[in-house]
Amino acid sequence: MLDIQSTAAAAPQVIRRDAYREPDWLVPETALDFRLDSLQTRVKARLTVVRHGDHDRPLRLDGDSLTPVAVSVDGRAVTDWTMEDGQLVIALSGVDHVIETEVEIAPELNTQLMGLYASGGLLCTQCEAEGFRRITFFPDRPDVLSRYTVRMDADKARYPVLLANGDPIASGDLPDGRHWAEWHDPFPKPCYLFALVAGDLEANRDSFVTMTGRKVDLGIWVRAADLPKTDHAMAALKLSMAWDEAMYGREYDLDVFNIVAVADFNFGAMENKGLNVFNSRYILADPDTATDMDYDAIAGVVAHEYFHNWSGNRVTCRDWFQLSLKEGFTVFRDQQFSGDQGSKAVKRIEDVRTLRASQFPEDSGPLAHPIRPESYMEISNFYTATIYNKGAEIVRMIHTILGPEKFRAATDLYFARHDGEAATCEDFVKAMEDGGGVDLSQFRLWYSQAGTPRVKAALSHDGATARLKLEQTVPATPGQPEKQPMLLPLKVRLFGAQSEAPLCDERIVMLSAANDEIVIEGIEERPILSINRGFSAPVVLESDRGAADLAFLSAHDDDPFARYEAMQQLMVDTLVRAVAEGMADHGPVIEAVRGTLTDKALDASFIAEAVLLPSEAFIGDQMLVVDPDAINRARDSLRAELGVKLESAWRGAYDSAQANRFEYSPAAKGARRLKSVALGYLAASGAKDAADLAYAQFAGADNMTDRQGALGVLVNGTSGNRAKAIEAFYDRYQDNALVLDKWFTSQALSTRADVMDEVLALSSHPDFTLANPNRVRALAGAFSVNQRGFHGADGRGYAFLADIIIALDKLNPQTAAKLVPPLGRWRRFDERRAEKMRAALQRIVDAPGLSKDVFEQASKSLG
Ligand code: PHE
Ligand code: ZN
Fold it and tell me: Where does the record place the Peptidase M1 alanyl aminopeptidase Ig-like fold domain (predicted)?
């Protein structure tokens, strides 16, 4: 039973979207003065405040863990201020005033990594969403835009480089070995985009000439030893700048653009105006330490943060309920960019796989929320796959509905209309309507309704007429029992079973009702349905297509995504049947995989994606009650048979990629990817030489993709090579934190029965620490998505995760809260597991002194 009283007392305040009110006071100018020190930094702030609207309310400045040392109004020290819930409240009589405050903070003791903190000897800031209030008193809300001037001084030997937003204005030396610098950012911005960095850094410098001929100085700042690992990020930055000009007409607007890499960071990276701060894993790369996936992620995140300069900074969010306005749009933009750099089809497959792995479970669980939420306790909990990835799908659907030209006209209108403003999702949709000349009334439901729509499609054929019956339902989600039908753009095409040719052009069916029937005339032979091509709508599709039709599409569809999808569906159907009935006919999957694997017209990277079995988690998502053991058995058995029956094809694929020297090109990447998939199948087949092949690849690799790929195979096995590889990897990379993360992750993802013991042992390894978010995610985060290990029937996986969450919450609530969702899946598991998962959640909720971050996630997960 829940103890209503104590829970109510502990329950943090709920913030509601419909409670939005314009700010009482605006702050057109802000001058900050930092006397930097790792233990005692003094911050002076000088705010010009202007009363907004006709009211007599006092000025309220947000603060978190701040105590005012001094407060003055219009140059006179005052003492008649009060503190209310961390806010500094000052009664003011006039229309505008100058407010000065002074506080002291201790970056070195800031383990939350929000506000001003220390990381590896440097000082840096993270302010989104509400970190600025941990630096100085300020109206910490995104609709208060201010022009910033920042002066800082620091010990010159420890912090020779001093960076902030905007352009450098002046600098100089001071007595006592100190120095100072002043920066000015001419663009008004919300305080969440403020940033400052001080440290012993070196820059990879370059420049970019914009479309109007302005030269921008670029710098990527890292520790001197890491400089050789910054070329890939720099190349990606320049490509992004050119791409945003060509594709969206967006030009960069300052004379300098700086990026700093830091080792301790709660998220991926941050788009602070003119001074992006990155988790070092999204900057540093060389062939010996970064995988192809790392290279791609770096380019994608560099592009993402750069694109925010327009979609996020020039046009920002009115309030945090509008977060997807900048994140969904910017993810869509970075996905487009990455698709343009290599294979569009493979990029789309990867993005859909990510959506299904991280967003679909969210949408069907206790934490489901619309891309524009109605309420929150802690906004950090809403940096979710729904806001980001589903948000991107919604922008993608608008792009599909409008077509590329009108979409460009609509984004031009959006940027022109709202430049310099704090906008809403509604503003965005309105601009899409006005610029695209369409009515998006029903489409707006995507912003308010949570849950993944399900579409049933049934095709019938009679004479020369094909009839496509469509039926949509949107499942109930927490707080939303009833749903209305949504507008779903479904790309459809029919193929001839005999002719193996398309029977009609691709068309976009706009499904708007719960039920509809589409009639297609002139279909003379039995048609096979290709639907939701390119994943044109983010839905779960159910169709009555059998194994033969899916196999046909996997070989003949002209849309590469649809080919991939048909193969996945065939595999899922087979595995779900095998789980339900204890066995299934593997034949159609084996023949379809053989066909794809030996199709000379396909490129290696596509083949590698298409022949991969769906993950255990994804198979589980298809079932009412997830049975992890049965899923493992079914998947292992299909994998083994694929390995055995197609052994020579796997060997062929493996050998043909074997001789390549490292090169970072789409073709070379594809070859490496297929090689690692082939190695996995050879190992699954039980081939005697698989472990030796893997070890030889491990030891002889000239790049991290091959080395980690081999390690990933070896950790699952029992051969003596396993321990040898784990040890050799550690010895070689123990001084490289990012690679050591891979070492932890590879072991946490092991499919062995004893993975829990290994993970427990690793959690007391001297290199494991709760202080570094990357390390926590590398071990505990990775393990929590290892369906076998985490869902071990004894429940030790759940207890382990709860222990980590409770311990980490004391240091870093944001990162702790992100570990909660896997426990919230309890409704999907058998009663014995569900009981243990609930017990783990309850233990978290009951932990004394719990943060509101973790409280919100754990209490909602108990639901
Ligand atoms: N705004 C960042 C991005 O998506 C994410 C982020 C959020 C980073 C909060 C840090 C803190 O680009
Ligand atoms: Zn973003």
Answer: 451-543
From residue 22, how far is each of 313, 418, 685 by CA, in Å? Answer: 19, 17, 64
Query: 117, 128, 301: which to mutate for ligand 1, most atoms within 8 A of CB?
Result: 128
Could you tell me if the CB of 327 is within 6 A of ligand 1? yes
Q: Is the CB of 269 under 6 A from ligand 1?
A: yes
Distance 327 CA to ligand 1 centre (A): 9
Q: Whose CA is nearest to atom 5 of ligand 1?
A: 270
* Residue whose C-alpha is closest to residue 538's, from 332, 296, 381: 332
- The single residue of 128, 130, 305, 565 carrying the catalytic annotation is 305
- The whole-number average pLDDT for the span 544-571 is 98
- Altogether, the residues listed in the chain come to a count of 863
User: Does residue 297 belong to any structural domain of this protein?
Assistant: no
User: For residue 307, what pLDDT is reported?
Assistant: 99
Q: Look up residue 752 and give its two tokens.
A: 């062995």
**Whole-angstrom Cα distance, residue 385 to residue 116?**
27
- Residue 267 CB–ligand 1 contact under 6 Å: yes
Nearest to 758 by CA among 740, 779, 772: 779
DSSP 158-226: T--EEEESSEEEEEEE-STTEEEEEEEEEEEE-GGG--EEEES-EEEEEEEE-TTS-EEEEEEEE-GGG
Q: Parallel, antiparallel, or unpaired: how do β-strands 256-262 and 275-279 relate?
A: parallel
The CATH code of the domain that includes 336 is 1.10.390.10
Residue 126: name the closest of 193, 205, 201 by CA: 193
pLDDT in tens, 239-257: 999 999 999 999 999 999 9
Q: What is the rounded average pLDDT of the residues 512-532?
A: 98
Is the ipTM beyond the 0.90 threshold?
yes
Residue 72: which domain range?
1-200
DSSP state of 661: P
Buried b (16+ CB within 10 A) or exposed e, 140-152: bbbbbbbbbbbbb
Label residue 3 by pLDDT band (50, 70, 90). Answer: very low
- pLDDT (tens digit, 9 = 90+) per residue, 580-609? 999 999 999 999 999 999 999 999 999 999
Rounded to whole angstroms, how far apart are CA atoms 802 and 372?
A: 29
Query: What is the pLDDT, as a whole number, of residue 10?
Result: 56
> From the CB of 126, is ligand 1 less than 6 Å away?
yes
Residue 229 lies in a domain: no
